Amino acid sequence: MSVHQEISKHSQDQHDRVRRFSELDAAREKWIEIALQKCREKEDFADALDEINAVTDQINELARKGIVPQRKNVTKEMVEEYCRKQ
To answer: What is the domain count for the chain?
Structure first.
């Protein structure tokens, strides 16, 4: 494989990783909003929390390959504290 092809492949891999990160991060934010809404309404939000952390795990797996940042897993306490501060 030529150097040009290797550079192009590397660049494409990075682009794909950033694109996938953006998709996952948007999904994570959506689930965070759902969890916050349920918390505000005093509903159980455990299912949303599971979704948040499943997506977070995917983001962190992607981040281990480089170029995109990791995200923290979200706890029930984090959601409740955020709701109290609003």
So the answer is: 1
